[in-house]
Write a structure and sequence with these properties.
Blueprint (H helix, E strand, L loop, with lengths): L1 H13 L1 H21 L14 H12 L9 E7 L9 H15 L4 E4 L14 E8 L8 H16 L3 E6 L11 H18 L2 H29 L3 H31 L4 H28 L7 H31 L7 H6 L10 H11 L1 H16 L7 E2 L11 H13 L7 E6 L6 H14 L3 E4 L3 E2 L5 E8 L6 H12 L1 H8 L2 E5 L1 H35 L3 H26 L15 E2 L2 H29 L4 H29 L6 H33 L8 H6 L23 H8 L1
Parallel strand pairs: 5-11
Antiparallel strand pairs: 1-3, 1-4, 2-3, 6-9, 6-10, 7-9, 8-9
Subcellular location: Cell membrane
Family: Belongs to the resistance-nodulation-cell division (RND) (TC 2.A.6) family. MmpL subfamily.
Keywords: Cell membrane, Membrane, Transmembrane, Transmembrane helix
Length: 736
């Protein structure tokens, strides 16, 4: 692989115009495709294998048209203090609103709260449901303006009016200005690392090109594959981070080869063959981990994983081709100003920050190891209280009308009103369907934790009924989860007594079932990912203990990251600093997605850092000296890469959407733990204690394993044997 990439790097350097034109053509093609592609459909919420989805499917089958997915708005009216919505003026204003709202061109109906008994017991709150014929994305500005005008008229009458639902909901921005700040910090880190604006700008440029291609491709394919805005945001998050890092690794190795006096073209080839090999392997681990999310069986998670994996593949391809091509255009511009003046790059000294830190750890391996393990273990403790769910409007900012509508409904009708359970009764084959349904309604209504049940509604065939049960607790409350399990646990006895069966569904039940499915899949997926890490690193490093050490470090960093997420977003520690106004359960899909991404990033740092140690050990360094050599060559770049990723991920903490905010924080803190605690402290401490045993591998296994050659040992047969004299590099640069 190293030889192939070496030749590819030289070819891209030599044929730079062709390479640049090809990537420009790709960007233009997908850009045109994105501009002309049809709008993506709403993201499907189908979830196979869970009871709530089976109940929903039965509902669609037996009640045709009852699950129409047009947009809706729940308009909540609250009377002024000390007054009631049933007062003459307030009632007249609400009646007028219903009449005005129903006249909208895309409105299919508006419910009068006084006719539908949608008034609270104390008569301080009422709500009207406005249904539309079109989906939220298809509503015209005129339709939205018509509804907003009707709402404003009700407000002018003295009522407090808030709106829930998706009709007027705004799509939250992914990162906004915070994301731009993250990119600016990444640029600053690159400038400090390389001491050159060109060297700093090149990784940013290629990463942005890669993201442009990725996002345009996602938009082009969105309609065909149902890719949502969330899918694109996560692909942007990861694609931008790895795109900068992978290009930076190649540029760094190019500068290192120039330091040895090699020609620009030869340096580009060697950078692609050595750092490029590590980029391919690191990118492969990320892709495998992301693609592996499809085995969980959650469509949304599968789409996010595959889209992000595609963005990583594009980042790898750009690093291997476009980066060497751009180096061909400006072979000396990426060097520092001092190096350009001298006409040759100075090689790094023996005593830089990386080597000094390595020697510090080598002198005190046991304290460093204990401190890192105990520290991360303590931070990981909150994981034991991990509660998964799918928070809704209750975790939005109080500045949003959706959150205020949620609070008003909870205050007027009880916290469980925002998350009713839908019970679907399959009475096909029953002798007396109505009597059986009546019995089930009474049994569910008598369950502790249910405050009310609605009258059952039958389908035209009379063999299926549906009714709702309102819990006494909110949709994200742990007691609501227990209530759903209680109703289902009592089902066998009810089924045997009535001769019919029923299923529990609704948004609340779906969220509970999804959380349970993810929680059940988390440990198996973690085992698969750790096993994969051990196998891949066994092939790369040809060692038994190094992969085990890497997997243990990965577990420490990912558990500590999850513990931090629980502490902030569930317990509320420091939540206000991140703009989290309401704590609650952790987003169901977040932990398993975090595991997949952190695995890939952890392997990135492991490969780039430990590969240089193994290279030094193979070439004769003592074990301790090999650790110092690896840190001297790679620590600075790995630290810069980690800072860049933290900056990019932190930018998404400013997102308005809870899941993006949560994942941005989780990834940023995971990179902090993995790069600065695990790879910089835990890894060298373990290797120092193991000594030469760290690189032991049975001979039979050594013969059986394929030779990946991440370090590029085979390139010694292709590389120029002697460095060029000072000044010759400039003549070569001018000639090529």
């Amino acid at each position: 692989m190293a030889t192939f990439l070496y030749r590819l790097g030289r070819l891209a350097f030599r044929r730079r115009w062709y390479v640049a034109l090809v990537w420009a053509a790709v960007l233009a093609a997908v850009g045109v495709g994105a501009a002309t592609a049809p709008a993506a459909p709403d993201e499907a919420s189908s979830m196979s294998g869970i009871e709530s989805q089976k109940a929903f499917d039965l509902l669609e089958q037996r009640f045709p048209g009852s699950t129409a997915d047009g947009a809706g708005a729940r308009v909540v009216f609250v009377a002024p203090d000390g007054q009631k919505v049933t007062a003459t003026d307030s009632r007249a204003a609400i009646d007028k609103f219903v009449t005005e709202a129903a006249d909208g061109s895309q409105v299919s109906g508006a419910v009068n709260p006084f006719q539908a008994k949608a008034v609270s017991k104390d008569a301080t709150t009422a709500y009207s449901t406005v249904s539309f014929k079109a989906k939220a994305d298809d509503l015209t500005d005129t339709s939205k303006k018509h509804l907003e005008d009707a709402i404003d008229q009700a407000r002018d009458a003295g009522l407090t009016v808030e709106v829930g639902g998706d009709a007027l909901a705004t799509q939250p921005a992914a990162g906004g200005s915070a994301e731009a700040i993250g990119i600016a910090i990444a640029a600053l880190v690159l400038i400090v690392t390389f001491g050159s604006l060109a060297a700093a700008g090149l990784p940013l440029l290629t990463a942005i090109i890669g993201i442009g291609i990725s996002m345009a491709s996602i938009t082009t394919l969105a309609s065909a594959f149902g890719l949502s805005a969330t899918t694109g945001t996560l692909a942007t998050m990861l694609g931008l981070a790895v795109g900068i890092d992978y290009a930076m690794f190649v540029v760094s190795r190019y500068r290192e080869e120039r330091a040895k006096g090699r020609t620009p073209q030869e340096s580009a080839g060697l950078a692609a063959g050595t750092a490029g090999s590590a980029v391919v392997f690191a990118g492969l681990t990320v892709v495998i981990a992301l693609a592996g999310l499809s085995v969980v069986g959650i469509p949304m998670l599968t789409k996010m994983g595959l889209a992000a994996a595609g963005a990583v593949v594009i980042a790898v391809l750009i690093s291997l081709t476009l980066v060497p091509a751009l180096l061909g255009f400006w072979p000396n511009a990426v060097l520092s100003r001092r190096a350009r003046k001298r006409g040759r790059v100075e090689q790094g000294g023996e005593n830089n920050g990386g080597s000094r830190w390595a020697r510090f750890v080598l002198r005190r391996p046991v304290p460093v190891l204990l401190l890192s393990v105990v520290g991360l273990g303590a931070i990981a403790l909150p994981v034991m209280d991990l509660q998964l769910g799918m928070p809704g409007d209750e975790v939005k900012s109080t500045a949003t009308t959706e959150r205020r509508a949620y609070d008003d409904l909870a205050k007027g009708f009880g916290p469980g009103f925002n998350g009713p359970l839908t019970v679907v009764v399959d009475a096909r084959g029953a002798d007396d369907a109505k009597a059986a349904v009546r019995t089930i309604t009474e049994k569910v209504g008598d369950t502790e934790g249910v405050v009310s049940v609605s009258p059952a509604r039958f389908n035209p065939a009379g063999d299926t009924a549906v009714f709702s049960a309102t819990p006494s607790t909110g949709p994200a409350d742990e007691q609501t989860k227990k209530l759903v399990h209680t109703i289902r646990d009592e089902r066998p006895a009810i089924d045997s007594a009535t001769g019919v069966t029923f299923k529990v569904t609704g948004t609340t039940a779906v969220n509970i079932d999804v959380a349970q499915k993810v929680q059940d899949a988390l440990i198996p997926y973690l085992i698969v990912v750790v096993g994969l890490a051990i196998v891949l690193l066994l092939v790369v490093f040809r060692s038994i203990l190094v992969p085990i050490k890497a997997a243990a470090g990965f577990l420490l960093s990912v558990l500590a990251a999850l513990g931090s997420v629980v502490a902030v977003f569930q317990w509320g520690w420091g939540a206000s600093l991140l703009g989290v106004e309401e704590t609650g359960p952790i987003m169901s899909m977040m932990p398993i997605f975090l595991v997949g991404i952190v695995f890939g990033l952890a392997m990135d740092y492991e490969v780039f850092l430990v590969a240089r140690m193994r290279e030094a050990y193979v070439h004769g360094d003592r074990p301790a000296q090999a650790i110092t050599t690896g840190f001297r060559h790679s620590a600075r770049v790995v630290v810069a890469a980690a800072l860049i990723m933290m900056a990019v991920f932190s930018g998404f903490i400013g997102a308005g959407e809870s899941m993006i905010k949560m994942i941005g924080f989780g990834l940023a803190i995971a990179v902090l733990f993995d790069a600065f605690v695990v790879r910089m402290a835990f890894v060298p401490a373990v290797l120092a204690l193991l000594g030469a045993r760290a690189w032991w591998l049975p001979r039979w296994l050594d013969r059986a394993l394929p030779n990946i050659d991440v370090e590029g040992e085979a390139l010694t047969h292709h590389a120029d044997p002697a460095p060029t004299p000072a000044g010759e590099t400039d003549r070569e640069a001018a000639r090529v």
